[in-house]
Every structure is written in structure tokens, then in C-alpha cells.
Protein 1
Amino acid sequence: MIPAERQQFILSCLAERDIVSIADLVDRLGVSHMTVRRDIQALEETGRVTSVTGGVGLSRRLAQELPHLQKAAINTDRKRAVGQAAAALVQDGMVIYLDAGTTLLELARQIAGRRGLTVVTNDFVICAWLSTHSDCTLYHSGGLVERANQSCVGGPASEALARFNYDIAFISTSSWTVAGLSSPSEAKGPVKRIAVQQARRAVLVSDGTKYGAVAAMNILPLSVFDTVVTDAGIDADPVRALNDMGLQVILAPDIEGGQT
């Protein structure tokens, strides 16, 4: 079989069951482990499949994101660990962008004591927290209000963000694969794209449970990022793929206190 035929066979197997092992595919295709891994990587780059330990599964579909209050109650320890790991990248005097999201709220809580920071955000909750817990210079983007997510999106928000030059843009997402970030909301795209465009360093901050989910709208490829901050919820195979793409991967300490 040529690669396209093998890849279609893998998708056919996944249509019958959720996860297929690499060993099973090696036997059924009559090729090497390396060949199967290359085929899986090619499919991953399209966003259709996701590597799991010892195998491959179809990417999960994200139809819509949970409201802020519901997200805030999920995976709190994991988000705190990821936020702390991302906060270690912030130095006194930086200009940073904090994207909307509960994990980046955890990051904001960790950097409140930094000196001379300028923080720009589109998130109302982050802005409110920093306004009362820090002395940073603080800007909110304004723009179209997305009530459920407690943030601003769309063209006016992205135009406001374009006025700044960021040392680091911290970007959040509820769905990502090695193919990139996606979202059920098209309006989130311009905000994330302009923040990355205006930054010296772009950092994706997302706990590992969100890896492998795909939503309707493609937002950003992973190639625009320098660094990914995540945790042990992500499998080893995607981490290797991210490293192969030239991305620095920072794994937060696990929620039981050990290192991932």
C-alpha cells in the first residue's frame, strides 16, 4: 500500500473502534512500527486523529465550550500547576498578554507580585483580579462581550491588542492537537492571532486533558508558538511530536506533587 492507502485503512479501523494499537496496525498492514508511526503523524497533522500511549484514536469533537463558571470548577489542581509553570516565564518589567481562560487566571494569580509589569488581557475576570491584587499597569482590550466566557472577542478587541508589543503572549485553548488550535467560536480567532503576531514569544498554555479535541474552526497552527506549557495529562507521543516540531514543552509538576 502507498501511504495514502495505509492512512485510509487506519481511519477505517478507527471507524469501527475508538482506539487501535500500533501493534495491531503493524500486523494488519504488514509494515514496520516506524512506518505506522509516520502514517499516524501524517494523520495527526490533519487534526483527524490523536496519538495515545501505544496506539491512535479519533480526535474528540468539541461542539461548544463550557461557560466560565463551569470551567473554573473543573481540573482546578491541574490548571493551577500549569499556571504556575507558565508564570515562571514572566520576569519583572515585561509587557505580556493574557488570553481569556481559567488556566490563565491561575497564571495571573502567580505573577501579581512581579514588579513593573504591563498586562494586557481580554478577560474580565483576570482584569478584575489583577486590579485589586497587583500594582501592574493593566489594560483590557474591550470589544464584543462574550458573556459565557467573561471576555471580549472579535475585530474591535483584536484592533486594541494590536497597539502593544508583547514580550510574551500567553494563549489559551479548549481544543488542540499537533495540527493546531481550534474553537467553536470564529470570533476568538482574530484576538489570538493578533496577540501572537505582536509578541516576541508566543506560549500556548493548556492542561493536557484538552489535547486531542477538535472544534469546527481552525484558529492557529502550532508552528506560530515557541513554547507549550501543559502537564501529565498529555501522552508521551504528542510530547515527542511537539519536540520534533521544534517546540519547547514545559510539563508542570503532577497534581500529586511529583514531576511529570
Protein 2
Amino acid sequence: MTAQDPFAGFKAVQKEAWSLFTPMEVFTTPAAAKLVGFAGVAAGQRLLDVGCGTGVVAITAARRGATVRGLDLSPVLIERAREHAQLANLDVDFVDGDAESLPYGDNEFDVVLSQFGHMFAPRPDVAIGEMLRVLKPGGTIAFSTWPPHLYVGRMFAMIGRHLPPPEGVASPVLWGDPKIVAERLAGKAKGVSFEMDMMTPSALSPQHFRRTMEATIGPLIKLVAQYKDEPDRLKSFGAEFEALISEYFDAGQNVMRQQFLMTKARKA
């Protein structure tokens, strides 16, 4: 981030809020393997994981023999990613940085991935431009995102009603709409394909899951903090949130059913 970045303040808030995401890695780890497999990552490839969080995608790719770098806005999550790499005896270069200003050269990577990461950059055109800039012609770009009409997409829409983003910040869930993704990649990538999959976080009840989400998901953390001195509004939001969770909670299996979209394309 620089002083000229109009969203520097927004990103500073994101950096702090997402620092508590670590416990969710137990759920994102299986999805990481699905994205790496979907992208066809192979030994010897140079790969970048954008918005890498705790490194679950990067480390999964490194285990396949790729040479991997990972970048995230949160230094706290980057430190966790480094711990994971050390434990797995893998050499992965993790740095804290901005998806809208990647510190890498043009055409540097064979593969660029992002699991629920780049979608939170405020300007989609800037983020995708950077991801494609560092990707070699013919290289693979692939990412996982949340469709707007399903649980996580609806959750972010609900948050936005209570806590509207700054002017000019695009909704992250638009990255989960295949039509919009195709438009954003038009003329820049070819062979665009999509695949749906499912994440199934465990939970004892909708109330338990709400508590977990409110303690780990950046925008929810900020929203709860905003309502800390307004108990009636906080209670009303909690009831609204639990009602949404209940639509996707499988009481017979003690899991949430969270479908996500994977996109893959080749740089033109």
C-alpha cells in the first residue's frame, strides 16, 4: 500500500480484522487440495498463491513439487503459513503484501491461484490485472470463490446491509458469478471453465457456528464490534444471522453445507 492508494484505510482495517482467521484453516485445508487438483498443478511449475492466508493452498502445491510463493495482506497469517511450511519441511517464500500491487515481475509464474483471497481486493480489475500480469502467456489462473446466491454469498450481502463498504469497493461475492467472472476475464484469458464443490465445516448448532464465524471472519468481527454498545441491534443481527445459517445447517450430520465455485483459465 502507498499513500496514493485510495483504499489504504480500507485495507488497513482488513489487515487487522482477518488476522483472527487462523482457526478456519481446518475447514479450508480440504478445499485447498480441491483447488490445486482442479488447476492441475504439477512438479517443476512456478506458482503464486494470492491472498494465501495460512498457506494451505501454497503448501499443498509445494507438496506436489511446485516452486511456490505466497502473499497475503495479513502478517499474522503469513507467520502462520511459515510455521506450516517449516513443519512440512517445505521451502515456500511467504510475504505480506497487496493483491492489487504484486511484488513480482511480469510473466514470472506458470500458475497463479487464489482461494477465497483475491475476491476481497476492493478493485476487481486491478487485482485480476495484477494476477495476469505476473502469469506467463498460456499459464493457468485458478481461484475459488463464493456464489452470491448461496450461504457465504448471502452472508456477505447481509453484512453489507449492516456495514456498507466504502464507495468504490466491489462486492467480493460477484467473483462467484460465472457470468461476471467471464466478463472480467474476457480478452485476457481463454478456455474458462467452472466447477462447483462443497465445504462442510462441522458445528453442533447454528448458534455454535455463528459464534465461530463472528470470532474469525474479518467483516463479521468488525460488525460485531460496531454493535458492541447497541445490544438490541446486536441481538437482532444475531437472530438474522442464525436464521441464514439454519438454512444450510445439516443437523443430521452436524455440518454446514457451503458450496463454492472454482474457476480455471489460461492467460491469452
Protein 3
Amino acid sequence: MDGKTLLEREQDHPQDIVVERDRGRICTMDSARYVDARNTGRDVVVPASYVGVLPARMMAIHRPRGVIGHDACVGKDGAGIAGLWYLEALGIPAATADGMTAEMGNGEDLYTNGIVKHVNYVAETCGVKPGMPVREAAEILLANDPTDVEVGNKVRREIMETHPSGRRVVVTDSIVWAYPEDENRSVLVTAGHTGRSGAKFLLEASPWGFICHDGGMSKNRSGVSGLVTADEAGLAGACIDGTTAPVGDAFLGYEHGLISAHNEAAAKRGVEVGMTVKEAAHRLLLGGE
């Protein structure tokens, strides 16, 4: 033995080039270990490893054009996909396939049969979306550069429903991204907590209504304490149950979340615990009509 780890040993790692263009290549491989200097700055790599922090570190040192890996069915603490955001912070587009659509350790199967389930923001700006075949997503990463690698400045915001009065339901990840036009007009569905500091931002934004995250409730129900402050100001609001949708992602909260708490002003508009976030937002929009 030469005293070097497997990672340190230089060798020809097995890679299969499945697409080759002027911009670069799409290379499949069975392990993230096989990403190397041949891929730097030009190739979309499709390794059938989980994309946790450890494999992400192995791949990141070689700076591939993009990465599509396996999600290992996500697993405890989201460990199977945690590397997506490690790579995002470095400006590297990355996605993972649903673990039930592709075999682990089989790059060919991942490329041929995998369906994308999780996407980091940099890959999203390239056009990769959940539900897309890995083969298609890899082509998109090869053909497109990220449109915005200033990850810290990303603002996701979308109008989901509009009332004849001009009021609307707006989904955005944080209340700090409320616009002046939201004042007394928008039901803001966000994914920050509804604690003491969150309440200050809510009062400053003064929307028509709000749904924020409950922060897992936390000590002394501090994750929802802002509901009382909002109620005292006549602001109707509710919270997303942290067991049904992740903190920080309002779009998942809107699609999958359930209501865990609300204030009296929201109750008067028909909001109830256990209701879907989408239905609660609709009732807040109607304003008790």
C-alpha cells in the first residue's frame, strides 16, 4: 500500500460519456468518487451516489458544470440530499433523482430511468424542475448557464390566487420580501417562523393576512407567539405545521402544509387547525365573505 486513501490515489476512474457537445459532456458514473479533473468546468456529471455533504465535497473540488445524483430516499435529517445546498453555495447546479426511480451505484440506470425530485436554486435557474427525467435535466444543465448565482439574493415570489377586489395570495419564502404593494392587499404565505421577531416584520408589512411557519412550536410556543401580537393589531394570521412542511420553503408549505395554529382574527375568516394551507390562504383572502 502507498499510504494514500482511496480518494487520494490517482487513477482512471470509470466514466461513461453519453453526450458530447462543444460546450462539454454528460458523463455517467457509479460513484461520486469517480468525478475528477477531467470534468472540471465542462461536464455535467451523473453519479449514482447520494448527494450528501460528503460526496458534494468530493465533487466540488473538481468544479463540474453540473451534478445530478441519487437522493438515497432522503433519509434521516435529509442527509441524502444535504449536499445540494453545499453545492448551491458554491454556485454549482445540482439535483437528485427520486430513490425509487433509479438504482444506487448504477449510473446508467440513474441516467436512463431516474426522475428528478430535488433541485438546488442554481439548477433551478438553469431550468431544471422536479418531475423531469434525469436525461432531460442533464441536457438542460449542459445547454444552460445559471442565470443568477448570487444565491444569497434569491427572491422566490409567485401570485397563486387573485380576488375580484384585486387582493391576492402571494407565496414567498420570507416576510422580509414583502413589497409595499402587499400592504392591506396580499395574503402572504411565507416560511419564516411566527415568533417575536417575525411579528415585528409582519406588522411592518401590514398585509391583508398571513400564513408563516410555526418553527416546530419551540420552547414556550415561541414559534407562534407572534400570532397574539398580530391579533392585537387586527392582523389575521396562521401557522404552517412544521411536521407537514419545512421551514424556509413557502412553496412546499403552500402545496403540502397543514395549519397548526391561528389567531382570533383568522378564526373569524374561517381558518381552522388541520386545514390545508392552500384552503386557509383562500379563506383569509375572502376575508369572511
Protein 4
Amino acid sequence: MLIHPMPNPIAFSVGPLQVHWYGLMYLLAFAQFIALGRLRIKQPHIAAVGWKKEDLDDMLFYGVLGVVIGGRLGEVLFYNPSYYFANPADIIAVWKGGMSFHGGFLGVMIAMYIWGRKRGRHLMDIMDFIAPMVPLGYAAGRLGNFINAELPGRVADPSLPWAMIWPNVDNLPRHPSPIYQMLVDGILLFIILWFFSRKPRPRMAVAGMFSMLYGCARFFTEYFRTPDYNVSFGGITISAGQMLSVPMIVLGIVLLIIAYKKKSAAVSTA
């Protein structure tokens, strides 16, 4: 049976400045956004609609604000409001971990809307462009959660080869749920979405595919994670993460239906 290594959350120090692994994972996420964005701009159907390298730097600035502010407010409002309202000083302590993907998703949408208004681009064109770059950044964040020994998994069968004891929780074998979410919600989703977006797709299709697939993947991997809290609907109990993923699944399906209906209508009238 494995034991969580419980690494020091501080990667290194420079004088009084402490650099946390969690923060480095976010830097890695933003760096891969630029790297993948430059690859995406080289794709003929992306270059044809005028995306340029200069757009990436500008979008990243707005995106960072959306991720950090939205992600933190999502954590505060969606997952642990009673604690943060009792300890308001901890709301800004992002270096301790605790960022909501769903909050970050909403934050990025608002930030991209503002950027799009400034640059004259449709919000859905922006979301179609950036969607394939998001999952690897998410994967980096989940690795940061694992290093911080956050988001422990549910109790697992001791015979599971990768069952892991989290010393900061108890001595029971648990699923390493941040690793599951890094692999499934992050890396696997990236592979599928990157290949899907390599060909021209109707407006909203790439963003819709991302929203639907992420929602489905997150709903599945939440079964292995200790829930922040449970919610019951009609006798069915789901976790908070699953509850927040359902709207993403619905949104993704709606966007895909609209995207391909519009494409069909355009073809039939041509």
C-alpha cells in the first residue's frame, strides 16, 4: 500500500519570500497556455480568422484575473462559505490552495467577454479558441492539490495497488483522487479536445464539446473523491462537484446542438 509522500508545500525560499508548489503549478498552467496557443495559431483554420501571437499575451492577462478571482470566489461561495465568512482574511490566502474550477470557469468567461468587447471578438469565438488549452492547465492545478495533500479520495479497497494512506487524514487506504482528476479531467480531455479542434468546427462546437466532456469527466471522477458536501435531489445524493458539473454538461449539449443546427441550416440554404 502506498503512503502519500506529504512533500513540503514550499518549493523554495528566496530570503523572506516563500514560493509554493501550488503557485508554481499555476505558473506552469499559464506557460502552457502560451505554448499551446502559439501552436493553435499555426493551424490554418485558426490563422484564417485572424488570431495572432499578440492576442495571447493580452488574453492571458485577462484570463489570469478571471481564473484567480473567479476560482477563489467559487471556492468561498460554492464549497466553504461558513469558514471563509468566519475567517475573511483567509479569502485572499490563495497560496494555501483552494480554488474552484467551476468558479474559475465563470471568471474566465467574464474576463474573455470583457476582452472580446475591447477587441471586437465574439465571446464564443474566443471560448472556441481557448478551450483546447484549458485541460492541461487544470491538470497542473490538480497536481498542485496532490502536492498540498488536498482533496483526499474516498476510502478504497486495500487490495487496490495504488490505494494510498493520507497521513494528514487518517490511516485508511484512499483513492488518490487528485491524480485521477489530473489524468481524466485534464490530460485525457486535452487529448480528445485537441484532436477535435484541429479541424474547422462551427461556432460554439469546440466550447460546447469542452463543457460537456469536462462536466461528464468531473461527474465521474467525483465518485472517487471525498465530497466537500452532498446534495440530494429526488432521493438521489450527489457531491457538490457533481452538482456543479451538471450545468456544464447541459450547457455543452445545448451549445453543440445549436452549433450543428446552424451549420445544417447554412448548408441547406447555400
